[in-house]
Amino acid sequence: MATTTDAGPEAPAKIHAKKRPGDLVFSGTALGAGIIILAVLAAVTIFLVIESIPAFTTPSDENPLLKGQTFLEYTWPLVFGTIWSSILALVMAAPVAIGIALFISHYAPRRAAAVLGYIIDLLAAVPSVVFGLWGGLVLAGFVQPFYVWLNTYLGWIPLFSGQVSATGRTILTAALVLAIMVLPIMTAICREVFLQTPVLHEEAALALGATRWEMIKMAVLPFARGGMVSAAMLALGRALGETMAVTMVLSVSGVVTFELLTATNPTTIPANIALQFPEAYGTGVSLLIATGLVLFVVTFAVNAIARWIVNRRAEFSGAN
To answer: What is the pTM of this model?
Structure first.
């Protein structure tokens, strides 16, 4: 018979499951991978901070790249060009990516969807230098007459005003190349999110008499909102850090302007580092590293905002 005390029956002893060697190896490997990621991120941050200190402590007259400017005056046009070109690329790529993802997931026949998905994934494997060559040698000349048309008939809009570039190498051309580069990753993420929409939600909307587009608007898009935002922010992060494509397409001037069609264009931080680094020395190298630190902070902020937006939608799931 089980013995009891005044406090009640004795609690059964806990049984500890024996950990197998495979479980220990797997958990240790996962923990080590997480620690490595944090260590690499910390190492990069420490390197950027330490190497950029001379750029802040040395007088601007002694820095060969500042030429009498302050750090803010030198960096602000670069930050503007980086964010401006990336936003333009995202505005052009997002609707196309969402449309392609919806076509693959809900409209295209299975074989056509598989082929189109393979082509989109293959586009992501093209090196950025190839996009840069194509943008500078082919796309710029192809779109230049269209820029003239925009300036002629829509020149009253500030974005399309000014003297049109004769070469077509403008911030808009660079944004077009960036949009094509970020299109595959955004399309792939949106496609997977759309396919995860609960089938019961879709069937319920169709059973109530909704058309296919109404079903997508009521069931698919609300469910995938967080995933679409995450895909857009990931694409924005890719555009912010792109170097060679912008360097080979854009004719840079280092100014702050919203005009899209002129030869006077802002440049981006990665492109400026790629152009200036071979001839930089001393505190000039520290200045370029400091601009890299600014880009690191901007990219980190973009990803943090994306994570915050996605977490706000985390409570909405197929189980609700």
So the answer is: 0.83
